């Protein structure tokens, strides 16, 4: 075996450069100076005897071999992290560092319930959170940047393991004085496609909402401009149209102090499934199942409270 093997640090620098496309940004992502990162990549190139990155003043361009090594480096780094995770998993569960991505249509509504619970029940757990769109979160999981993802399904995740936490119903939200306000639920055919406001591409909630309606013309006509659910609510509040919101956002108070009404969407698939997902065969699988139990319990609290406040029918 050759004694001149790439180090994990060199591979980390190369992967960061590929992801950032800029030496300065890559160095910041690795918490080193730009000269340190550049020297590390040059050492790697000297080691393999081939140029991996073409450097110009404006562009960082990877060679074909450079791209192949980056792809392999992702796997090596992920395996190295899982090697460390095996040792950690053999000790006390849910302690030490845990990196989790959460999509923006879940994070503001579930995390305020979860984090105090984790601080109380698992004080030795250091939870590092990243808020990312579904696509970015799945990529972070695949490349080993995070250990697990709090996601809404269905979504194309590749080979993962998962634990279902809750079912989250979809509601149609519109101005309070809308003359078409029905007394109960709203059927998909009642939605005016010219007034429908949805999240921009990259957010799985948009696809869940359109799939629940099962109206192809909605995908073509709906205005997809919202960067967040809070932005959509403000647009509806200002009379620009109507939108769809998940039940957890409504329970989380997103419509408080607004003049917006929300009615359930009357459709067979008018919901999304909230799940915790992680890489298949991860050595920390049992820990993630324990975390899912805590998440599931935290998610059920507002529902229980709402049920307790509901008066019994006369």
From TrEMBL:
Keywords for this protein: DNA-binding, Transcription, Transcription regulation
SUPFAM superfamilies, per database record: Periplasmic binding protein-like II, Winged helix' DNA-binding domain
Signal peptide feature range: none
Cellular compartments per GO CC: protein-DNA complex
Keyword DNA-binding in record: yes
Family matches, as InterPro entries: LysR_HTH_N (IPR000847), LysR_subst-bd (IPR005119), WH-like_DNA-bd_sf (IPR036388), WH_DNA-bd_sf (IPR036390)
Keyword Transcription set for record: yes
Entry-linked Gene3D superfamilies: Periplasmic binding protein-like II, Winged helix-like DNA-binding domain superfamily/Winged helix DNA-binding domain
GO molecular function: DNA binding; DNA-binding transcription factor activity
HTH lysR-type domain segment(s): 6-63
Superkingdom of origin organism: Bacteria
Similarity comment: Belongs to the LysR transcriptional regulatory family.
Record's protein name: Hydrogen peroxide-inducible genes activator
């Amino acid at each position: 075996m050759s004694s001149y093997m790439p180090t994990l640090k060199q591979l980390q620098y190369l992967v960061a450069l590929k992801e950032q496309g800029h030496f300065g940004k890559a160095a910041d992502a690795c918490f080193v100076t730009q000269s340190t990162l550049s020297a590390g990549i040059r050492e790697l190139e000297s080691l393999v005897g081939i140029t991996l990155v073409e450097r110009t003043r404006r562009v960082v361009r990877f060679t074909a071999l450079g791209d192949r090594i980056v792809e392999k480096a992702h796997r090596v780094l992920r395996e190295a992290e899982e090697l460390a995770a095996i040792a950690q998993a053999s000790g006390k569960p849910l302690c030490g560092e845990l990196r989790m991505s959460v999509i923006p249509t879940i994070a503001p509504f579930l995390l305020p319930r979860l984090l105090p619970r984790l601080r109380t029940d698992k004080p030795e757990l250091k939870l590092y959170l990243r808020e990312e769109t579904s696509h970015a979160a799945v990529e972070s999981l695949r490349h080993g940047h995070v250990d697990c993802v709090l996601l809404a399904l269905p979504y194309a995740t590749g080979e993962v393991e998962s634990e279902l936490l809750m079912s989250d119903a979809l509601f149609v939200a519109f101005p309070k004085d809308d003359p078409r306000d029905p007394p109960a639920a709203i059927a998909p055919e009642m939605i005016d496609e010219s007034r429908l406001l949805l999240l921009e591409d990259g957010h799985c909630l948009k696809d869940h909402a359109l799939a629940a309606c099962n109206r192809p013309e909605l995908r073509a006509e709906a205005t997809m401009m919202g960067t967040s659910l809070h932005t959509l609510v403000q647009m509806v509040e200002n009379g620009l149209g109507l939108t769809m919101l998940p039940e957890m956002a409504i329970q989380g108070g997103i419509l408080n102090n607004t003049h917006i009404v929300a009615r359930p969407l009357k459709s067979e698939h008018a919901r999304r499934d909230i799940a915790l997902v992680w890489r298949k065969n991860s050595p920390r699988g049992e820990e993630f199942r324990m975390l899912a139990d805590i998440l599931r319990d935290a998610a059920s609290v507002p529902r229980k409270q709402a049920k307790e406040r509901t008066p019994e029918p006369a």
